[in-house]
Automatic annotation (TrEMBL):
Name of the protein described by the UniProt record: Biosynthetic arginine decarboxylase
Residue ranges occupied by any Arginine decarboxylase C-terminal helical domain in the UniProt entry: 563-611
Family membership noted in the UniProt record: Belongs to the Orn/Lys/Arg decarboxylase class-II family. SpeA subfamily.
Cofactor dependency: Mg(2+); pyridoxal 5'-phosphate
Family annotation (Gene3D superfamilies): 1.10.287.3440, 1.20.58.930, Alanine racemase, Lyase, Ornithine Decarboxylase, Chain A, domain 1
Organism field: Allomeiothermus silvanus (strain ATCC 700542 / DSM 9946 / NBRC 106475 / NCIMB 13440 / VI-R2)
An example Gene Ontology molecular-function term: metal ion binding
N6-(pyridoxal phosphate)lysine, modified sites: 86
Species lineage: Bacteria, Thermotogati, Deinococcota, Deinococci, Thermales
Active site per the UniProt annotation: 484
């Protein structure tokens, strides 16, 4: 936990996972207690716990890291952060970041008209930048320019050359002097999953010939002074600091060159990419980062300063658009285990006197397995398993015998794994055994709704039981969701030195609830999810922590079934009418049954879409 938690979570002395939004010395609360209390209040699971204090802390940490770096290297300009709202547009998220960022003039970035519409209404510091990225139509440009006219520091980033002519035309129409940003297509590429966001084949940005054309066009129109910002983005989750440094050098050189062409660029925007160390390994692995926040800030400041000083150009105001690093830590998805699917073979097996010879042989193998012969026994059991399947297909073995053979195979496999693990170097062919023998914990959630990146791009998140962390886990498990989709599962888990196929978990105790927290889910997951199988948005609790304990500031109930059904084009009253007609015409139901059923149907339409007790 300490490796990935960035000081926001820890294991308490009672074995419960705790949240510490102000770091380890500050107030804390047990996540297990919060969830248990929510349940006692009748709130159903799954639930998302949101900690706005963590969001605010991340905004401060980012700005302070740059402040320190600027001081350290005697950099002659400031830092201005920008939060790209696409990373999580939820109201609580945007408003919390805007508030925490106000003292630092932290701004917001829009990638669409709708995003700009919500940003223009935020109470930002007057100098905070509002950047408009993404492809733009006339209305987007008009909205941005009107924002500028209203006194906001709106910068329109040109993502492609053709946008320039439109910006110039509409600015003239509205009588506004635009602030223009130019997105430069970096040659340098990031590292990790989003490598292709940078480089020459990137979707966004102007090539160098296009930049020259833009400068010439603006100069001819007497508008060179409108170029305020140079922008680039090397990709999200850049795991290797060397790639970042390379990109900074390239963009800083481009800044210098633009200044030499007479463009009075003031802001140098290095985009996103500041990575989150999801697995805590501090490596360039795609779920990690081989650098710290301080190192990131220092490298950006130092390299920019070095390049500018080399050419005698003023230091630009440094801008970054960190989204993931600001939001990832603040939310925890809490899942409840509702069932366990166990492979056979843990039950005691009696050998029947009339067992089929292959089954009798399996019993012999199970009795004879030892540290000396386990590989050989496992091979024999494996081929017996195939034989039984062939016999079954030919109708030569009964279902009962086949079931026994299957249980025995798993029994032998378990013993094999146990013996192999006791040796230092288990044979390669046994590696899959652990996964085959793992329990499947059925968790009440939809991966497609709550963790779309886990499915779409194999993103890994830390997953930890919320209690019993002072007890050695005795089972290995994979996790499955409740969608009717076999892709709805977790079978890759983080580990400091490896990727695990199974998660160590505790033996469930009858009558006791077992909760798993999925951590670092605050970036992108909140807004990319879909309603596969009509599982809707889950309920969420906004939690603050102080010396007196925790407080649920707000509970946002999950989407009702009616809402998700309506999204598919149905009208809930039409559905209810059709069902009522069916019920009325039934000759089998008593009037009381009819009434009760209609009531239940109406209740379902306004109910939670997940499994309920
Ligand atoms: N800026 C731009 C232009 C982006 O495309 C992105 C995301 O890919 C970001 C910023 C945010 O990046 P991150 O979440 O890695 O900070």
């Amino acid at each position: 936990v300490p490796q990935w938690a960035a000081g926001f979570f820890r294991v308490g002395e009672d074995g419960q996972l705790e949240v510490t939004p102000e770091g380890n010395g500050g107030p804390s609360a047990s996540l297990y207690e919060i969830v248990s209390d929510l349940r006692d209040e009748g709130r159903p699971l799954p639930v998302l716990l949101r900690f706005p204090q963590i969001l605010a802390a991340r905004v401060v940490e980012l700005n302070e890291a740059f402040r320190r770096a600027i001081q350290k290297y005697e950099y002659k300009a400031e830092y201005r952060g920008l939060y790209p709202v696409k990373v999580n547009q939820r109201r609580i998220v945007v408003e919390t970041i805007a508030k925490a960022g106000r003292p630092y003039a932290h701004g917001l970035e829009a990638g669409s008209k709708a995003e700009l519409a919500l940003i223009l209404a935020q109470d930002l510091h007057p100098e905070a930048i509002i950047a408009c990225n993404g492809f733009k139509d006339d209305d987007f440009i008009r909205l941005a320019l009107m924002g500028k006219k209203l006194g906001k520091n709106v910068i329109i980033t040109l993502e492609k050359f053709a946008e320039l002519g439109r910006v110039m035309r509409i600015a003239k129409e509205l009588g506004v002097e635009p602030s223009i940003g130019i997105r430069y297509k970096l040659k340098a590429k990031g590292s990790g999953q989003w490598e292709e966001s940078g480089g020459e084949s990137a979707k966004f940005g102007l090539t160098t010939p296009e930049i020259i054309r833009a400068v010439d066009l603006l100069a001819k129109a007497g508008m060179l002074g409108t170029i305020a910002m140079l922008h680039s983005h090397v990709g999200s989750q850049v795991t290797d600091i060397r790639r970042i440094k390379q990109a900074v050098r390239e963009i800083a050189q481009t800044y210098v060159q633009l200044r030499k062409l007479g463009a009075p660029v003031r802001y140098l925007n290095l985009g996103g990419g500041l990575a989150v160390d999801y697995d805590g390994s501090k490596t360039a692995f795609y779920a990690s980062a081989n650098y710290t926040l301080s190192e990131y800030a220092e490298d950006l400041v130092y390299v920019t300063k070095e390049v500018c000083d080399g050419h005698g150009e003023p230091h630009p105001i440094l801008v970054t658009e960190s989204g993931r690093a600001i939001t990832a830590y603040h939310s925890v998805l809490v899942l409840e285990v509702v069932d366990t699917i166990r492979p056979p073979g843990e039950e005691k097996l009696e050998e029947p006197p009339d067992a089929h010879p292959v089954v009798a042989d399996m019993f012999d193998l199970a009795r004879s397995i030892s540290a000396k012969n386990y590989r050989e026994v496992y091979h024999d059991a494996f081929s017996n398993k195939d034989t039984v399947q062939n016999l079954y297909d030919l109708g030569l073995i009964s279902l009962r015998d086949r079931a026994l053979a299957e249980s025995l195979f798993y029994q032998i496999a378990r013993k094999t794994l146990k013996l192999a693990l006791e040796l230092d170097y288990p044979a390669d062919e046994l590696e899959d055994l652990q996964k085959m023998l793992a329990d499947k914990l059925v968790c009440n959630f939809s991966l497609f709704q709550s963790l779309p990146d886990s499915w779409a791009i194999k993103q890994m998140f830390p997953i930890v039981p919320l209690n019993r962390l002072d007890e050695r886990p005795t089972r290995e498990a994979t996790l499955v969701d409740i969608t009717c989709d076999s892709d709805g599962k977790f079978d890759r888990f983080i580990d400091l030195h490896d990727v695990r196929n199974t998660l160590p978990v505790h033996e469930l105790r009858p009558g006791e609830r077992y909760y798993l927290g999925v951590f670092l889910t605050g970036a992108y997951q909140d807004v990319l999810g879909n309603s596969h199988n009509l599982f809707g948005r889950i309920g969420e609790a906004h939690v603050t922590i102080d010396e007196d304990g925790y407080d649920i500031e707000r509970f946002v109930v999950g989407e009702k079934a009616r809402r998700v059904i309506e999204k598919m084009g149905y009208e809930d009253d039409e559905l209810a009418e059709a069902v009522e007609k069916l019920v009325r015409s039934s000759k089998k139901l008593t009037p009381a049954e009819k009434g009760a059923f209609m009531e239940q149907y109406a209740r379902e339409l306004v109910g939670y879409t997940y499994l309920e007790d």
